[in-house]
Amino acid sequence: MALTFIDSTKLSGRDYFSDSGRDYEDLSSLSILSSRMGMSENGLNGPHFKRVVRRSSSQSLDIDPLLSGNLDSYPHLKELLQSYKAEWVKDDNKYGRYDAVLPPVFESQVFESPDTDVETELRLATRGRYVDEEEVSTSGRLSSESDPDAVYAKKHYGGPPLPCYYPVFNWHAERSAIFGQRTPELPPSLSTSGLKISVKLVSLAMQAGLVEPVYGTMCLYNKEKREKLSEDFHFRFLPSEFLDDNCGGQRSVLFSLEAGSPAICLLIQFEKHVTEEGGVSPSVYTRKEPAYLSEREKQKLQVWARVMPFREPFAWATVSLFDSSVTGGVGGFTSPSSPLPSSLLGSGLMEAAVDIDGQLIASADSKHHESRHHEPVLVDVPGLNRVKENYMEETLLDPKRLTHKPVKATLRLEVERVSQEDVERGSLSECGSFSNSSIDGEGRESSLPRHLRHASSGYSRGALSGRLKLSSMDKRRLAHSVSANSFDFPRPQFKAIEFRTSNRGEPMSQVLHCLYIYPQTINLSKKRNLFVRVELRKDDYDIRQPPLEALYPRDSDSNMQKYGHSQVDVNVKIPHFHDEFKIRLPAVITPQHHVLFTFFHVDLQMKLEAPKPVVVGYSVLSLFIGVQVHRLDGTLPVVKELLPHYLDESVKEKMELLDEGKAVFRLRSRLCSSLYPVNAKIREFFAEYDRYILHTSHPLGNELLEAIGGLKLVDPSDMLQFLLPTLNMLLRMIGDGGETLQVAAFRAMVTIITSRLRQESPDGGGDRNKYLVQYVDYFFDDFGGVLEPVYPGLCSVWRSLARSKAKGYRVGPVYDDVLSMSWFFLELIVKSMALEQARKFSENLPPGEDLPPLQLNDEVLKSVGQLYDCLLTEIHDCCKKGLPLVKRLNNSIAFFCYDLLSVIEPRQVFELVALYFDKFSGICQSMVHECKLNYLRIISDHDLFVEMPGREPSERNYLAAVLMQELFITFELEDASLKLKAARTLVVLMAKHEYDARYQTLDDKMYIAQRYFPLILHILEEMPVFYNLNSPEKREILVCMLQYLHHLDDTTLIKAWQQSAAQTRLFFKLLEDSQNLFEYKKAGADGLMGAMSKSDQGDGVIRYTEKLSPSVNLFLAEASRHDGRWSNTPATSDNGSYFWKRVSPQMSSPTQVYREISTHGLGLGPTSGKSSAQLRASLHPMLRHKLEMWEENLSASVTLQILEIVEKFMDAAAVHVAVTDYVKLDCITTIFIGFLSRSQPLPFWKAFLPVFNSLFKSHGSILMTRENDRFLKQVVFHLLRLAVFRNESIRKMAVVGLQILVRTSFCCFQNISRLRVMLTITLSELMSDVQVTQTRMDGVLERSGEAQRLQNSLKQMAMASYSEELLRECGLPEDTLDANFDNEGKEFWNWSEVSDLSETLLKALDAATDHALMAPSMMTDKYSTTEGFYCLAWAYKNVPDLHIMWLLYLCDAHQQNQSWAEAAQCAVAVAGVIMQAIVGQKDNLWGKDHVAALCKICPMLRGSVVGEAASAEVEGYGTSKLTVESAVKYLQLANKLFIQAELFHFCCNILELIIPVYKARRSYGQLSKCYTSLCSIYEALQEQEASPIPFKDATYYRVGFYGSQFGKMDRKEYVYREARDVRLGDVMQAMGTIYESKVVEGGQTLHIIPDSRQVSDQDLKPGVCYLQITSVDPVLEDEDLDLRKERKPPESTSRVTTRVFDRFLFDTPFTKNGRTQGGLEAQWKRRTILQTEGPFPALVNRLLVIQSESREFSPIENAIGMIEGRYKALLGELEEHERMDGDQAPRLQSLQRILQGSVAVQVNSGVLGVCTAFLSGEPTTKLRLEELHQLISVLMEFMAVCKKAIRVHSRLIGEEDQDFHSNLVIGFQSLREELSRYIPAILPEL
Length: 1886
Prior knowledge:
The protein is built from 62 helices and 39 strands. The chain is α+β, with helices and mostly antiparallel strands. The chain is flat, with a radius of gyration of 49 Å.
């Protein structure tokens, strides 16, 4: 069947709350992720139980697969293996299963306002920045990232008051306050005693360098006894060339010891690949001089290391762990038994070193670290002992041993004594199975001080984020792993097996069934390079068969291996070995099992192939006696070769011995097994148990009873080792045995768990022995469901014993022992029932369903009831006698009922509960009432307490009814302590419900509120009972009442108001009492509003606070007692106080002084008599700040809750459900206005926003009308102003407020035109109040924080993806922005329009900011100045008035700079804006054609959006200024400026737009002036066309910017338009003047690139800014730029009127050899075409280049293009001559100029130069055939057109030009003759 896994994403209550006692956080982590629900073989499945994967405390403790096979012949062995390897069955519900939701975040209740002081804002910004994750006591808030109102935003103004009342609520701490509260234990494999030492190999630094792999082993070694104490830990150090996926393998190991001793040390042995004969000797590592190996030596070593797999000993070292010569030893391990104080700082490492003899050398500041006992120690071993001769482990430390030069290397270790908690966390965190979820619902933080455990009342951050949670030990390792060049962390730590594990007096929890082999020596007759191969074989039939995979690998990442190889001892007769081979033994050892040793000789010379080992001999060790011998030290013979069946004695005689029997192999072995007991009584019991199970003996034979009785005489330490399987066997006899056998087994079990364990238990046999807890919680699984459940037999035998006692029979002391250990048997009974329930119903259980309750049969139910009644009688008798046993027994039966509620039918449990209260009803003893309260607290803590049914089918939650009844009875008592305890029970229970993850829906919360609300009705009926309570109890009850009201449905609440007027008045009286009791009054507020008067501060005996939970006082007292832990001296400005300021700088005030008061024993004694003010003054400033913050939050939460209730009451009265005064509706408005007019905390702003939304949703149609523009402008102004605030939440609220206005505009007008205009106008006005720039320290202006915050807010307004999150954060529903008109369902919201609105506002803001930033350079940089005005004009284009204003500013700036064309364009733009507005008003004077004509003059008008903006009439702004007269005025200005710029072709178009106006108005005088002006303009145009020199209106230059100092212009190109008389040098000088000062201020230099080559990153030097200035030519629209011809300025008269350019080009000559110029045959040309973002003339002098293209022309293409250019020029002149009949004068001059440059013969230039370069000699052979033909063709055409042009010239000239013509003819003939040398065919053609 499929297995169900536990959901690891749920958080346990332990994650939310800290524990003041023992907390088992990481154990909880263990079971959630590493466990599985159910037993697949037995059908166990369900929500109660899950299997927990058992983890071994040692490394790779794999057992033989045969152990998982059929062991039916050995039942006791099967039971043993089951107890060792079976997965634990864990009951999730036993210790409470509390999955909590995210708690709220407590923020400081800063009263925000528009003029919030800077100090408060800075404190908000820096709060919590320096808080350490572990220092929860100083965090100031619960650890969560959630919004406190996220869950309640839809319905409530604020969160529930209970979390504020319990800021340090701790579920485990409250449960632990119950006497006898059950606490879980860790699994046995993690709960070990003794000393733990963690060793990490940080690094190995070799003087010669790490060039070949270095391997090694590490173990614990006793120098005095010369004995290994642990198994070997293998590690390696690899050079970079050998790194693989494992990256060096493991380097961290955990050793275990019983106790420390000066003789105990770390023995570290190194090995490397065996040395090659004739290769690099290991002596290179012992050189004194610090010389590295040569490259040849490195190469030889690395090649040999890759070829040779075998190793040899290299070096060794020892590190003394408990050397008495050093204070504290390594890490302070002086006394392993003494507890070490935990260090909270944990930031420094103790430094130490080890000399060559392994002696520890402390650092100079060891005294400074003496108190840091729990810190890791960095140990440097500066020199390693070199291995040069044979050795064994015993001879290493021999003082007479010859020493050699040490290896020049330094080994760095990190040694640390590890606490048990760190071991548990490390074990639980080393893999994915051990995470941060709950197995028991508890966590462990006992290593922290109590005040820190209290303060950690929040989620573990590791649990919330899903990351691996590190222990303190892990964090220290992680902190030093990077700096120390250590391995990648976290990697599973190797846990070395201690060889004395089998002798410990504790239950064995894992299988230890392995054999350690230690080869020692072998005697040979001659020298060899020998090594040993070890393997385990199951038979001796065929040596060729593979052996068993039984050897543990040296690398933990590898699988089990078949072979193991020792080191090579080189060239010796008596090789020595010190290897350790760990062999996994089979479950059943047969005579055929043996260990085979094969001895090999290997040649150490590199030949054609890698050396191959040669077999020398064999030795065999039989394992048949291995189970009887724990340690073996002997010798074995060595044979030359093995024969089949070599284990037979007859075959042994036939095999030849090596060296005639002189070769003897000496070895040692050690057996570690936990499958066979040492004690004879236990073995006898196991044997009888086998006979009993296999039915080979009489069922009730004396042998079995005697064996059971013999268990009472077993030594406690021996019994503890096999305690768990023994209990299982006894329980099986109790479950299925006869009465005699049951009684015998039961009595034996009672004796074992009392007398035996009490002697051996560390706590003296306390209430809950940890071994018994482990057995019940983990091991006991009721025999896997194979047998009948054990609970009927256990109940029967216990009941018979109890009834015998009740009848007066003598039962002996065993009955008292049963009562003292009743918890154990009751928990066994419940777990047996629960297991039966799971197995019975899990088969057909649908996924996600809970198990149905188990129905106990009448016999069992009667037995349980009688047993329960007997126990109640014992409690009653103990109460009368005052025996201390009463509380333990009361708790045992309470937990018994608690457990039964999860297993059997609840109503059957209710019978037991009713029996309990009936038994004690009417008894007025305080002890009885205390027992009843404890009973209720335990029962009410059940996971399903809320879901419990009634005792009758018609009732609901019987237990809740009993609880409220008993609590109210307790309130009537006179005992104040019991009253307080009852109130605490109620409030703790409500807090538990509030954070329960299962009850987070509104229905669940409402159900809980409905179940507990009757308690409030009881109080209303008996108000004197409430008034007789003290203030603490009143607060407890009232906070619960407010909690109920927070989740209560309106119907139930209104019913409470409909009972009677008196009850309603009492109800609101309770609310009034809540206001008084929870009102926040800050002491010493200097007379400000809300300050506590001196008389109210009091001098009575009170705690730190009265408003919060009593747990807060305990928390503060505990934190104050630990306040001195940071420093042993009083806190002053130089020591302790500085730490607090450094960790958390936020204080109540920066000038606040910490008044140190002695905090020793600040619990209850010394503080008595001190007032609250005195106690607060004694607190640390951080704690005092937290206390004030908690009280602020509680007051705000209660106030918001009361406000919500009042609002509900008024709403109910408004619909006549309750009586109310309708005038109070105005009070709601008044309260709303009062909140806006006063400074309020942030929760009130969040409450305000929904009201704001509702206001505009209901009345938006009125508020958005033109009559309310002034009000709307004020709202918009304040929202924009709030968007500048430093507080992020206020800015978010402002953003949502703007979105609400947008939504309203969509609903009312289906567009946002008017709103866009209003926002733009308001933003323009706001810019005068907002400081958009600030000055840096160096005097440079930069964008201010206000501008940045406003920019971010405006961006967020249009972020659709962020909108839903923003609405949630502000507490609004996701459909808030749905814009529906008249509820017709049509959605008008358009994110694209909102995005346009945001872009409009951002452009305005950026323009204003950039304009302010350019203020210092306005006088020098005319380009930036005009661009600033341009950006402002275009940013406000949606508001015609503002748009025109900034355009006119820009026009004035251009006129000052004499940029007439640009100034004219500005005037055209102004006229265009007005004309567009007029056309939009349907005025027939102008039409769209006229606007299009104007856009041709100023193309940038196409991007102006004026139509809808002009129609948006706003107060003070609108269309009144947009008249025809204004348009004509600016058209005339544009005409004047164009005339000054000599751009007459634009003047014609402008006058054509003015003439229709004068015609329509019959202004004949103006018409006459217009026509006169047109006449003069056309004459000027004719003059320009008739001029022989082409007209040039401007020059254009490309400027490229390269450098960080240019800011936004970096790596950008611009085209500048300058006057026609400005030259390239002038532009360079102007650019240098503008930008040199800016570049120098930035610490860089300015360089101008003199040419037009392409700029690459290699050409740019750091610290230098570059300008590249190039003259460019404008390109006509229809010009073909891909032609190869030389381009010349247009000379055609038909093109003179086209003066709008947006494309430009320039040619760059270059050669392939890197020079710029060369001969015609090597001259290349690159033509670059630039595309600007708009045409010239424009509104500014420069435009950005948006596209750049380049084309390269080869030399032949360049030459052909040159000739084609001249050919087309001549041809064009001829065509023009034919077109212009009679008008010959202009054409003659142009023709003469072209002919003179074409037919004149010059050397290496013109046409003759091309022929010389390409048609003579070698270049001709380089040309392609088509290129040659094309060149010849072009030359022929050119000569032909020249001949024709000369004939035309002869007809045009007069007498004065005859000589010139003769020279042309002579030149043409000479050219023809010269060309005929290259082109012979030219003569016939010409």
